[in-house]
Amino acid sequence: MPEILTPEAVDFITDLNRTFAPRRDELIAARAAKRGRKLDFLPETAHIRDAQWQVAAAPPALRDRRVEITGPTERKMAINALNSGAKVWLADLEDANTPHWHNVISGQENLYDAVRGTIVHTSPEGKHYALRSDVRPATIVMRPRGWHLDERHVDVDGRPAVGALVDFGLYFFHNVRELLARGSGPYFYLPKMESHLEARLWNDVFTHAQAALDIPHGTIRATVLIETVPAAFEMEEILYELRDHASGLNAGRWDYLFSLIKTFRDAGEEFVLPDRNTVTMTAPFMRAYTELLVRTCHKRGAFAMGGMAAFIPNRRDPEVTAAALEKVRADKSREANDGFDGSWVAHPDLVPVCQQVFDDVLGKRPNQLDKLRPEVRVTADQLLDVKSTPGEATFAGVQSAVDVGVRYIQSWLSGNGAAAIHNLMEDAATAEISRSQLWQWVHNGTVLSDGQVVTADLVRQVLADVKGSLSGDHLDDACALFEQVALDDDFVDFLTLPAYDKID
Q: pTM higher than 0.70, yes or no?
């Protein structure tokens, strides 16, 4: 295995933290200060939205992104992703990764070998995994942790390092020259941002890191996940701040719904959502968000990336698989016809489905940046029109939220941040929307379709039933943590913050 924490690498991430951690702290504090304010497009940045500008042209390795496969940097899953036929592998050190120190370092080791094409793995059963010679390996786009998370195993001047700077810094330091030599580059997905000022910080980190290693300015490319409601009002500004390094924006689902509940936690029934599984991307406020994203990206020469197809095909249940694949196909068809340049899948068996849908729309073109969508006009009221969402809150929805939330947290505490639950590949976003929806229903006294009122006692009753049906390590901790983040009066911003205190 390569040595990751070399003195030179540690010096590099120490420098990044000394230079940028204070600004990170200020921006995290600013999030809380803005909570409760009315959201709208910023008048002070109207000149940016009105001006003529474009992001930097995409490098060859990122011009065709019609299928991207996501997953953690665990060794076998990394090889399967690289071999999947997808154009891009989102190598996830964030929501699909429990930040055990072992996972943090082994993930960097696996990325080091993946970049060099030397990654191999032999399972305990003796099965050998290696990169295929007949398939072009997916281009690696690494997702570091969000700004809010620290890394307590790296001490900088007596305080924990910023997790995002550790993830980014180690990957960039060890791999940038090898990536460039192989015709690729240091490409990143940036999660959980809430403002263009947070994008400006990332841009300054990129500029600083490139100068420190004598890498040409603009070599880095970043795609931003628009997975918070405040960021949806600042898409153009976020691209503008990153314009020398920007590659595109991504539209997600669970994190966006989680952010909606978190942002409007005290806003009353107008922002109460029905069962999470009934809130699709065709809900009016979600439709406004995705259409604005496509229009914004293509106006500025950036790629618009669609959301996750999390279904895991089950070869032992062909009927369930066939029905699910039809839903995946319909969802990807909507994205492709709306103008998205590509989309995400969580399993290699979904790559051909997504590929075919985008092939039918793109043909031989690598993308559809020319589809400008000038007819799209989205207002602030449309982005916030939650009350028009069809569906209802049900007791089955309460049961599902508790069941999936507990199962995921149990998996996370065990070291697996990408959990297969009920034929779906789930990450931390699923647990976040599950627990936040229950918090919202309890605090608004939501009445279920069967007439029951959602109370803390009802949730605890369901939690006891779920706990009785499960077994395994960390179950007690998972149930206790879920109860805390779903029912405490104080809404914790991210469940991974208290969860981090329970792992090594």
A: yes
Please identify which of the residues 143, 221, 243, 373 carries the catalytic annotation.
143
Question: 438 exposed, middle or buried (CB, 10 Å; 0-12, 13-18, 19+)?
Answer: buried
pLDDT band of 315, cuts 50, 70, 90: confident
208 exposed, middle or buried (CB, 10 Å; 0-12, 13-18, 19+)?
middle
Domains of the chain (ranges, CATH numbers): 7-381 (3.20.20.360), 392-501 (1.20.1220.12)
What residues are paired with 453 via a beta bridge? Answer: 447
HEC readout, 16-47: HHHHHHHHHHHHHHHHHHHCCCCCCCCHHHHH
Which residue matches tokens 């592998």?
A: 89
Q: DSSP letters along 230-293, please?
A: HHHTTHHHHHHHTTTTEEEEEE-SHHHHHHHHHHTTTS-GGG----GGG--TTSHHHHHHHHHH
3-state SS, 151-219, equals EEEEEECCEEEEHHHHHHHHHHHHHHHHHHHCCCCCEEEECCCCCHHHHHHHHHHHHHHHHHCCCCCCC
The answer to whether 143 is a known catalytic residue is yes
**Rounded to the nearest 5°, which phi and psi values hold at 249?**
-130, 155
Residues facing 120 on adjacent strands: 130
- Asked if residue 343 lies in contact with residue 306, where contact means CB atoms within 8 angstroms, the answer is yes
Q: What is the tens place of the pLDDT at every residue in 432-480?
A: 999 999 999 999 999 999 999 999 999 999 999 999 999 999 999 999 9
> Which residues are 189's β-sheet partners?
223
- CA–CA dist 504, 497 (Å, integer): 13
Q: From start to end of 280-365, where are the E strands?
A: 303-309, 342-345
Residue 427 annotated in active site: yes
Radius of gyration of the chain (CA): 22
Q: Are 191 and 225 in contact (CB under 8 A)?
A: yes
